[in-house]
Amino acid sequence: VYSAAGERQRGQTVGKRLLGIRVRSLDGGPPTWGQVLLRNLARVADFWPVSVAGVQMPYLVALVASTFTRRRQRIGDILGRTVVRRHVPLACRALVLASTSPRRRELLEKTGLRFRVEDPSVIEAFLPGLSPEETVMRLAQDKGMAVARRLGGLEVVIAADTLVALGPERLGKPRDREEARAMLQRLSGTTHRVLTAVVMFDRATGQRLARVDSTEVVMRNITPWEIEAYVASGEADGKAG
């Protein structure tokens, strides 16, 4: 009764709190009394002894259920509509950068964190009807999810995307130097915005953090000669806007 009452009020039992395991309901709040009751009654299925080759295995059902469910849930947790999440310290986790950009790798290296790089292999296409902010966030999420789906551990995945917004117009990476030249001509003498979306996926808890930063950039009128020299230098290659 004490354990059930504690779980009802905080979504957390004392034993799980001491073990660093957090419990919440699927809607994010504490479980209802009915969910707590069903979850505890269904625990019988988790510990029911199953005979395998003459050997009694009391945890076989729980093991099979946690192996084949997305959130590693047991039968009691699934029927009680609760999510059990194990808290793993960040120091014990693998950090994955879902980007092959050398600039983003350099920025993350400056933090002193250890990480590895995974290529998201996502086609960066602009969907119609989305604002520049929605577009850059969608692309960052697509990159992060593409890598997160391939991983099977407790990794933390970081993904990002950048584009330039000239009013409602969205400028991404130029396909070639001819398009880079046309972009610079459109941006010359304008005030435009540089948008960067950063998304962080925590595979252990299922949490997602997302943010879009916007910076106004004022560009003076640049001459055709300056545009040609900049494009010829190769510095525009692979950079949004």
Helix content: 25-40%
Mean pLDDT: 85
Runs with pLDDT <50, length 5+?
Answer: none
End-to-end distance: 62 Å
Biggest beta-sheet profile? 6 strands, mixed
Give me some keywords for this one:
241 residues; two-stranded antiparallel ribbon
Question: What's the SSE blueprint?
Answer:
Blueprint: H1 2-10, H2 14-18, E1 21-25, H3 33-41, H4 43-46, E2 50-52, E3 55-57, H5 60-67, H6 75-79, E4 82-86, E5 95-97, H7 102-109, E6 116-117, H8 132-148, E7 156-166, E8 169-171, H9 177-187, E9 191-202, E10 208-218, H10 224-233
Parallel strand pairs: 5-6, 5-7
Antiparallel strand pairs: 1-4, 2-3, 7-8, 7-9, 9-10
Please tell me about this protein's structure.
- It is a single chain.
- With 241 residues, the protein is of the alpha+beta class.
- It is built from ten helices and ten strands.
- The protein has helices at residues 2-10, 14-18, 33-41, 43-46, 60-67, 75-79, 102-109, 132-148, 177-187, 224-233; strands at 21-25, 50-52, 55-57, 82-86, 95-97, 116-117, 156-166, 169-171, 191-202, 208-218.
- Strands 5, 6, 7, 8, 9 and 10 form a six-stranded mixed beta sheet that branches. It has a two-stranded antiparallel sheet with strand order 1-4.
- The chain starts with a helix and ends in an 8-residue tail after the last helix.
Short description:
This protein is an alpha+beta fold and 241 residues long. 36% of the residues lie in helices and 24% in strands.
